[in-house]
Amino acid sequence: MPLKGQKIGCLGGGAMGEALVAGLLGKGLVDASKIYVSDIDQRRLEYLSQKMGVNTSSDNIDVVKTADIIILAVKPYVIVPLLKEIVPAARKEHTFISIAAGITIEQLQSCFEEHIPVVRAIPNTPCLVGEGATALSAGKYADEGNMEKALAVFAAAGKVAVVPEALLDCVTGLSGSGPAYMYIIMEAFTDGAVRLGLPRDTARVLIAQTMLGAAKMVLETGEHPGKLKDMVTTPGGTTMAGLFALEEGGVRALMMKAVANATQRAREMADIK
Ligand SMILES: NC(=O)C1=CN([C@@H]2O[C@H](COP(=O)(O)OP(=O)(O)OC[C@H]3O[C@@H](n4cnc5c(N)ncnc54)[C@H](O)[C@@H]3O)[C@@H](O)[C@H]2O)C=CC1
Ligand SMILES: O=C(O)[C@@H]1CCC=N1
C-alpha cells in the first residue's frame, strides 16, 4: 500500500485541494490526522478543519517539513513564487505533485536546486465524490516509488491514467475542464424539459442520472459510444429526431472546438504572471 504511513501535505485548500483531500478520506485510505493543508486564507483553513478534521496551517514550510507527499494546489501564477518560498524545506525523500494547469515539469523542476522528485497531474473536481479523472506524468527525478504514491493519491479519488507530459494540456482541456462542459449540457437539457412543462427538480435528476448511466455503460461494457448510441435509436423514432437537431447545430464540431480552445489556454497558462 504506497500510502501506508505517508503524511500528505496540500499547499492550497481551494476547490481542488478540498476535492483531493475529500477523495483521499472518502475511501478511508488515509486518516485525516495524516493530512496537512496550508492556505493563506484563514477561512478556508477553518472550513477544511471543521468539515474534514484535517490538520491546517498558514505556514507552507511547516507543511512541507511535516509531510512526505506534497500536493501543489494553488493557481498556476502562484506556483513559482510558492516553490521559491518552500525550496529550503524540500528534500529528495519528498514526492511533489503539481496539479497546476499549464505549468510544465521543466518550470517546476527549475525552482529546485536539488534533484527533487516531481510528478505533474491534471485531476478534476469530481475527485470530491471519488469519481475524479486524472492523468499523470513523471518528472525526470521521479522514480517508480514516487509514481506509485502519486497514482495511489489519485486512484483514491477516481480513475487515473499515465500520459506523456506533452499531452497533459490536452487532458486539461478534456477532463480537467470537462465537468463544466457536462454541467452546461445538463443545465441546457433541463431547461429544454422545463420549457415543455417538466418540473425542474425532476428534469435535473433524470438528466444527471442519464449522464451517469451513459458514462457507466461506456466504462463497464467497453463498447464504442457510437454502438451504444445505435442501441438507443429506434428507426424512425424519437432519438434520431433529437440527434438530428444536435447534428444540425454542429454539436460535434463545437465540442471538438471546446477541447482545442481549452488546450490552447492551458498552453498559455505557463506564461501568465
Ligand atoms: N478547479 C479545477 O477544476 C481544476 C484546477 N486545477 C488546478 O488546480 C489549481 C488550484 O485550482 P483551484 O483549486 O480551482 O483554485 P482555488 O482558487 O479554488 O484554490 C487555490 C487556493 O490556494 C490558496 N493560496 C493562494 N496563494 C497561496 C499561497 N501562497 N500559499 C498557500 N495557499 C495559497 C488560495 O487561498 C486558494 O484557497 C490550479 O493551479 C488549477 O490550474 C487542475 C485541474 C482542475
Ligand atoms: O479552468 C481552469 O483553468 C482549471 C484547470 C482545469 C479546470 N479548471
UniProtKB/TrEMBL annotation:
Signal peptide: none annotated. Its EC number is 1.5.1.2. Pathway: Amino-acid biosynthesis; L-proline biosynthesis; L-proline from L-glutamate 5-semialdehyde: step 1/1. Residues 165-269 form the Pyrroline-5-carboxylate reductase dimerisation domain. It catalyses: L-proline + NAD(+) = (S)-1-pyrroline-5-carboxylate + NADH + 2 H(+); L-proline + NADP(+) = (S)-1-pyrroline-5-carboxylate + NADPH + 2 H(+). It is found in: Cytoplasm. Belongs to the pyrroline-5-carboxylate reductase family. NCBIfam families: proC (TIGR00112). This is Pyrroline-5-carboxylate reductase. It comes from Pelotomaculum isophthalicicum JI.
